[in-house]
Amino acid sequence: MQPRVVIIGAGIVGTALADEITRLGWTDVTVTDRGPLFRTGGSTSHAPGLVFQTNGSKTMAELARYTVQKFTELEAFDPVGGLEVATTPHRWTDLHRRHGWAKSWGIESRLLDPQECAKLHPLLDPDRILGGYHTPTDGLALALTAAEAQARRAIARGARFLAYCEVVEILRGDGRVTGVRTADGQEFPADVVICAAGFWGAELGRAVGLTVPLVPMAHQFAKTGPVPALDGGERLPMLRHQDADLYYRTYGDRIGIGYYGHDPRPVDMRTLLQDTASESMPSMLPFTPEEFEPAWRESQRLLPALGAIELAEGFDGIFSFTPDGFPILGEHRDMAGLWVAEAVWVTHSAGVARAVAEWIVTGTPEIDLHECDLYRFEDAAHSPDFIRRTSMQAFVEVYDIIHPHQYRSAPRGLRTSPFYSRQKALGAYFFEGGLWERPAWFDANAHLTAELAAQGVDFPVRDEWSGSFYSPISIAEARWTRTHVAMYDMTPLTRYEVSGSGAAAFLQQLTTNDVGKKPGAVTYTLLLDYNGGIRSDLTVARLSDQLFQVGANGPLDFDWFTRHLPGDGSVTVRDITGGTCCLGVWGPKARDMVQPLCADDLSHKGFGYFRALRTHLGSIPVTMMRVSYVGELGWEIYTTAEHGAALWDLLWDAGAEHRVITAGRIAFNSLRLEKGYRSWGTDMTAEHTPEAAGVGFAVRHSKASFIGKAALESAVPPQKTLRSVVLDDPHAVVLGKEPVTIDGVVAGYITSAGYSATIGRCIAYAWLPTAVEPGAQVQIDYLTQTFTARVHAEPVVDPEMSLIRR
Ligand code: FAD
Ligand code: THG
Q: Do 644 and 528 belong together in one domain?
């Protein structure tokens, strides 16, 4: 028998899901909506439907691309094109960056001078702008037409849609969803329930113990009266004026104006129905004209033809914002069969629906969705306070120019390692990552730059963009790690304790490498999804027969582990990150520094590469692992949190005679790039197989079985391969996501990059056609410039491994 599916919500997401799920062959689908069909009263009912595909996220761009393609087939898309204009030099440079993303992800685009912009959009005052970014395949979605067309296709395959049918309870039995109950008392049994309730989603989730981190927020949209300069026949492109938080589209001879410049206005769901203009449109609040004043004045400046006319109407529409701007997709971990697909724009709706349908029906989406995963957030990020503050900030920043290394400014200080006060005293400049405070560099190391410069080390001067959130001190720190010794705070590295009689078998089945070695072994290994895509890379240390310590990448790994636990209680997974801490002590002097503190033999023979040892340093119990993401002699040294400060002081004092420093994340990143080590989520994702990503060595094909093995065995050779490239100009740097061209044709894109103090050049990773081999010459577009670079054999530094294995 087919699974019975109930979808809550018949907006653009619910209707698209019904279409995609029935297309995959599950046709017992019921879609319920609290409102009428298909103008339900949700956000879709009045969405102006602008679809701009360009996004810094490759995944989001692909979700949008599929939406455009599908809506075009459904005759629910008007490809009027998109035009983003710059009124400041900073924005004009940023439009170059967006043009770069478009090239990287394969979206047609070009940059235009002011006259060309005015030709495309004759209402524009060319004297007010510096240039524009044009995307001809963008356009207007007819959201209700698309919703209805997708619903009709689903209905033709057997789905049914129920109007005025509000779900008041999600039913559960035995850890699974079993159906829903509606306001009129009916029960609908179901094996799969998908919440596609838009901004109602957080409330529905709360009722079943699920945090759906989204905040309904009001956003202003107004329409002008007839504009004489428009005779109604033109099809003007959509326009974005991000410097003033504005966007525009035409409706015949009128113009619709959207505005994000007002203070964020989270909506209180408890009073929503009283606040809304009419109950049939609960997603519309009355217009607040005073808030719109600056938008209207600025619009009249940019589009002078509006000077003589009046606004005709407006409303404050409600839709969802999330802490990081991405949708919320996935299955409830503690209630199998209950899925959410919320905080999705019309722009990404069809793409999201296809991916989520694949996920539900086949078990694995084709596209990498880690940025959108329901379980991507840290524990503290599930608090109402965090969700509200960061989602409001996401509203404020919708059109802001965000530097790739500009981390959130609030809330901060939620997670600090036991070394925090020491780091502050040494002048740490902190970044936030995974809610941890992480030193990027230390002002205390400033004097090293002069010392190293005197020895001939180069400290290239950066432009304003690449020089932001950056200090040349990081070059000195990286260099010092290769010549002396440095301490790195590795506390934020997510780690789990996996224990029990079934632990070894569990980890063997979940990961690609042989992790069943004798206690004392550390193994680098991969988590694959069922399609053979890389979900994560891990280090697995076997500390005793039934006890493993796993070094992981974040909350999604915990989620994957938890979902795959055997039901018999033979395996326990515990996140020990917060209760422990870790210092990486690396560099040629590391052994000289640490050996005197330890009764055990730390020589290469006594404590080999990729081995683990539980021992003491001074009086402090530690677990040491001979692992180094920076590619140097040394160890990750773990202890419990209460010993952290003492461990720091012990090592710091022992290191004084070796001139030990503490170094930050920028140096760390630079050194791992030299060594060819990948960073999961940036360089490689579920989109890539191990072979393509250059980590095929971590797959033990002779193992009887592991998740993803079957898919790898039937995989075709990869078309694209991750390569290291080295920029020619010693002063050139790139930051990530830039397009790579060969002979003027886009061939791939950069993932991550960093300046290497060892070779005096910037090293970057790029996804390139597999045929492009080391030695090949490529070009990289960086903002307004183009740099030349060469594909390099890996690793760029220390291919003989002589630095690590000494
Ligand atoms: P909705 O359309 O809100 O659908 C959710 C449905 O769930 C509703 O029909 C609701 O009635 C139903 N529902 C809720 N609770 C229950 C329940 N308990 N039982 C049964 N049914 C229930 N996006 C773009 O891509 N481009 C734009 O230009 C754009 N502009 C926008 C401008 C404005 C003014 C607004 C408000 C939004 C805009 N958006 C835009 C965002 C976009 O409209 C939404 O993100 C999108 O429509 C959300 O679709 P949805 O299907 O998730 O939600
Ligand atoms: N330390 C620990 N766990 C981790 C990381 C870490 N888990 C997550 C992430 N970082 C994993 N990434 C890597 C990448 C490369 C290496 C270690 C962790 C590494 N690779 C060697 C190589 O490729 O030559 C060794 C491979 C091997 O011998 O199999 O060291 O930083 N604890």
A: yes
Verify whether ligand 1 is closer than 6 Å to residue 197 (CB atom).
Answer: yes
Mutate to test the pocket of ligand 1, among 161, 338, 340, 345 (most ligand atoms within 8 A of CB): 345
Same domain as 253, residue 166: no
Predicted TM-score (pTM) of the model is: 0.97
Judge if 590 and 663 occupy the same domain: yes
Asked if the model's pLDDT at residue 274 lies above 70, the reply is no
Which one of 402, 429, 449 terminates a domain? Answer: 402
Q: In this structure, which long-range contacts are made by residues 447-452, counting pairs with CB atoms below 8 Å and at least 24 apart in sequence? A: 448/473, 448/476, 448/477, 448/479, 448/480, 448/661, 449/473, 449/475, 449/476, 451/476, 452/476, 452/479, 452/480
Q: Are residues 60 and 4 in the same domain?
A: yes
User: In which element (H, E) is residue 306 found?
Assistant: none
Residue 493 pLDDT greater than 90, yes or no: yes
- What atom in ligand 2 is closest to the CA of residue 698? 29
pLDDT tens digits for range 30-88:
999 999 999 999 999 988 999 999 999 999 999 999 999 999 999 999 999 999 999 99
Q: How many domains does the chain fold into? A: 4
**Mean of pLDDT values over 613-629:** 98
* Ligand 1 contacts CB of residue 33 (under 6 A): yes
Would 775 be classed as within a structural domain? no
State the helix-helix crossing angle for 473-483 and 446-454, rounded to 10 degrees: 70
277 has pLDDT over 60: no
Q: Is 388 inside any structural domain? A: yes
Regarding whether 603 and 504 lie in a shared domain, the answer is: yes
Which candidate, 78, 133, 84, places its Cα nearest to that of 110? 133
Q: Which domain holds residue 391?
A: 1-77+140-213+323-402
Q: What pLDDT score does 268 carry?
A: 85
Secondary structure (H, E, C), 559-585: HHHHHCCCCCCCCEEEECCCCEEEEEE
Among all residues, which ones are annotated catalytic? 219, 247, 537
- Residue % of the chain over a pLDDT of 90: 95
Q: Beta partners for 342?
A: 328
Same domain, 353 and 437: no
Question: Is residue 279 scored above 90 in pLDDT?
Answer: no
Last residue of a domain, one of 458, 485, 512: 485
**Looking at the structure, do residues 471 and 447 belong to the same domain, yes or no?**
yes
Same domain, yes or no: 656 and 628 = yes
Question: What average pLDDT does this structure show over 443-451?
Answer: 97
